Amino acid sequence: MLTGAALFVADLVRALTVEHEIDFVRASSYRDCRSTGEVRIPASVQTDLTGRHILIVEDIVDTGRTMCRLLEHLKDARAASVAICTLLDKPSRRCEPVNVHFCGFTIDDHYVYGYGLDLNGRYRGLPHIAYVPRN
Ligand code: IMP
User: Fold this and answer.
1) What is the pLDDT of residue 121?
2) Which of these, 76, 106, 93, lies nearest to 30 by C-alpha position?
3) Mean pLDDT of 4-27
4) How many structural domains does the chain have?
5) To the nearest 10°, the Cα dihedral for 126, 130, 132, 134?
6) Residue 116: left if φ>0, alpha if ψ -120 to 50, beta else—which one?
7) Amino acid 118: pLDDT
8) Could you identify which of 26, 64, 91, 127 might form a hypothetical disulfide with 2, taking C-beta atoms 3.0 to 4.6 angstroms apart as the criterion?
9) Alpha-carbon gap, residue 27 to 45, rounded angstroms
10) If you measure from the C-alpha of residue 62 to the centroid of ligand 1, how many angstroms do you get, rounded to a whole number?
């Protein structure tokens, strides 16, 4: 999932021992650190997914709307299986049920940035993950 998961996927694939191909899908719902609720998928995968095992790699699952929208989007692709891997999970914010198969870290309800995640478009290149303290 672009753009947030780009750094995570780059590290993840270098640790994978199974043969795989990489493709990208762009989904967006956040503006000014707030989930807009409206999820758009302006760019989808180019690969034919028929009969393939798909591992969706996400930076963070928050409300779950983006992931649900993507799963719906992939429904007609006739994949053999679909699993979800996310670096971060914020289950306290969930609005839509999402079955996460692989999770790096479960975190509290903070807006986080760095290591691919942005704060209003900035800081994706930080080598660590920071958070915005709530007032
Ligand atoms: P959801 O649809 O609410 O689950 O949001 C998923 C997407 O919102 C992620 O792929 C991120 O791009 C973005 N997002 C959600 N929470 C954060 C955050 O704390 N920092 C940066 N991006 C976030």
Assistant:
1) 93
2) 93
3) 96
4) 1
5) 180
6) left
7) 96
8) 26
9) 11
10) 5
Tokens standing for residue 83: 């699993």
Nearest to 45 by CA among 35, 57, 37: 57
Residue 38 is predicted with a pLDDT of 82
User: Could you tell me what percent of the chain has a pLDDT over 70?
Assistant: 95
- Whole-number pLDDT of residue 68: 94
Q: Which CATH number covers residue 100?
A: 3.40.50.2020
List the one residue out of 19, 60, 66, 59 whose CA is nearest residue 38.
Answer: 66
Q: Which band of pLDDT confidence, cut at 50, 70 and 90, is reported for residue 30?
A: low
Please indicate whether residue 112, judged by its CB atom, sits closer than 6 Å to ligand 1: yes
Domain that holds residue 9: 2-132
Catalytic residues: 62
